[in-house]
Amino acid sequence: MGPMAGARKTKDEHIFLSLLKEMIDLYHIGLTVETSTGQQKIYVIVSTMTMNLQARAGVFNMTQHNGLYPCIFCEEPGLVVKVGKGHTRCFPYREEKPKCRSSISIEQNVLSAIEAKKPVYGFFGRSIIKHLPFIDFHESCTVDYMHGFLLGITKKLLSLWIAGSSYQKPYFIGHNLKDIDKIL
User: Fold this and answer.
1) Across the chain, which distance is largest between two alpha carbons, in Å?
2) Using one digit for the tens of pLDDT, what is the confidence trace for 75-120?
3) Is the dihedral of CA 93, 99, 101, 102 positive or negative?
4) Which residues share a beta bridge with 178?
5) What is the three-class DSSP state of 16?
6) Which of 103, 98, 105, 55 shows the shortest CA–CA distance to 77?
7) What are the residues facing 90 on neighbouring strands?
8) CA 69 to CA 92: how far, in whole Å?
9) DSSP element (H, E) containing 181
10) What distance in Å separates the CA atoms of residue 174 and residue 68, rounded to the nearest whole number?
């Protein structure tokens, strides 16, 4: 998406427009390159995307990670719980899995949101990505590995395994840190 500067945040779709136009041109018109065998025409198609949660919310025109129905893959609303002096949205384990989103359900939610002029299952309206040819954005967007996995799940698991507050838990391995350090 790019850096932002100024008194106010720029609308995400404005930042993304030039990149979107370039990707559409590369798909339809292509790019001529010089190779050892002569000129070659190359066409580009966007097949996969990854972005952090804030960027994804802006690009997909949906609620952020702390809002109602923030997931691009399912219709889990989450639950707001009190934490310290504030509140946070969490996603507790449920025996019954939430309904998975599909291209059809997303399109229905988007159209309903446009008509109602309010969010429907997390969507405010159309995504700018909808203009890219041959892309089904909810199927083509991967989980952000660094933020979602390394800084999320991995950090939490390490904390549970080695934090002093977990000392009495069966999964605690903090008493083996010297051995773990040696192995690493």
Assistant:
1) 69
2) 999 999 999 999 999 998 899 999 999 999 999 999 999 999 999 9
3) positive
4) none
5) helix
6) 98
7) 79
8) 14
9) helix 177-183
10) 37
| DSSP bridge partners of 38 | 35
pLDDT, tens digit, 9 for 90 and up, residues 154-163: 888 999 999 9
CA 81 to chain centre: 22
CA distance 52 to 149: 11
pLDDT at 13: 58
Contacts of residue 126, Cβ cutoff 8 Å, sequence gap at least 6: 61, 110, 114
Q: To the nearest whole number, what is the mean pLDDT of the chain?
A: 88
Residue 184's pLDDT band (boundaries 50, 70, 90)? confident
pTM equals 0.73
Cα separation, 137 vs 102, in Å, equals: 10
Which residue has 């702390």 as its token pair?
Answer: 66
Residue 78 has a pLDDT of: 93
Please give the sequence-ordered ranges of beta strands (E in DSSP) within 47-148, or none if there are none.
49-50, 79-83, 86-90, 141-142
Q: Which amino acid makes up residue 14?
A: H
Pairing of strands 38-42, 31-35: antiparallel
In the numeric block, which tokens belong to residue 174? 């903090």
Helix residue ranges per DSSP H, 42-162: 53-60, 103-116, 137-140, 155-162
pLDDT of residue 4: 54
142 phi and psi, to 5 degrees? -90, 165
| DSSP helix/strand/coil, 12 | helix
